[in-house]
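During the reporting period the student researcher (J.K.) took over the structure-prediction task from the postdoctoral fellow and processed the backlog of single-chain submissions. One of the processed entries is reproduced below for the supervisory committee.
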Amino acid sequence: MSYRVPSTTTQNISGLFQSASMDPDWLATYIRQAARPVAIGMLARQAVRARVVSDGHLRTYAAGRSYRKEERVRLFDGRLGDILSVEMGSNDVQGTFEILSLRMHDGDIVRVASRVQGAPEIAGPELVIDDIVDMLLVGQEAEMVRLVRRALVSDPRFITLYYSEGEYGCLREFFPPM
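J.K. obtained the following structure tokens:
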């Protein structure tokens, strides 16, 4: 019998994560969807994207979703804001929508649209752009790579492959039994 224990560490990526554990099930799903080995650095970047949108205590902003006054939301850059007001707006392109005024924790007021027809209602990792990932990883990329490596070696479903281009995480299921 084997036990899987997620790797846990305390870190601070631009204030976004206080305690982070790399979820081996998430890693397995991501690699399986890629249908090929994935570079360790790419796994670290994708983990940041996934964490931005999957904080269990907060909803991450999505333009198609509905919000209410005093709700707390996370923007894609990791900043938190409290909704001060919800007003109606419209234009010729999007039609009618709501305008949220958010008070950010640094005191700034940010206005964003919500209930935009055709916009995503759920914030997915693909909505977090590379510039945001780069900003969140400043000075922390090596730590994220270490978290990925630790999760890969802690779970028998994974193997690490070394090619001339670098190090890759892979699922054992991709290889036939020997």
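The committee noted the following: The two ends are 21 Å apart (CA to CA).
J.K. will present the remaining backlog at the next meeting.
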